[in-house]
Amino acid sequence: MINKKKIFISLIIFLIFSQLHALIIYRPVNNGDMNDIKCYLRILDEKDNDVTYTAARVYYAWIDQPHKYYSYKKKYYLMGGIAMHVNLKPGKYKITVYTPKDAQNGFECENKDTWESNTFYYNTENKLNVLFVSPTANDNLFYNGGWYLDYKAPKFRNYTFPHIQNSE
Length: 168
Fold this sequence. Notes:
Number of helices: 1
Radius of gyration: 18 Å
Helix content: 10-25%
Number of strands: 14
Largest sheet: 7 strands, mixed
Distance between the termini: 70 Å
Oligomer: single chain
Strand content: 35-45%
């Protein structure tokens, strides 16, 4: 009887997770205090409804402990050295990350408002399964208060090079 219950529960769990599409959002290690600044996940559907907490199941792992997963208690966020595992319902989504003004830990930079990323358009039917988050910087390589999402890994030497935003 117990074996039948275990098999049934395992089957239910498998069916639930087989309907979800996995995406990893990785924020490599940054330098200095930038590692401690959280960037929060936002997922919008095709009608611009916020579905961050309804269309996804999200867990995280520290990059130095890749097989040890943790559940978020409230908001989904990344810090330097965290890989976020996002299991999405099938569909098309607009993915961004942001840091509100009150979560910037007094970090001095050009942008004194909310730090926003570019929008990454994600279709669960695509083969893409990893996104990278990098802080943005100006031409002088000073962090300027923003985030950049890309499917390509950022350059790295001891820490992630910030994404340079050209000032024109």
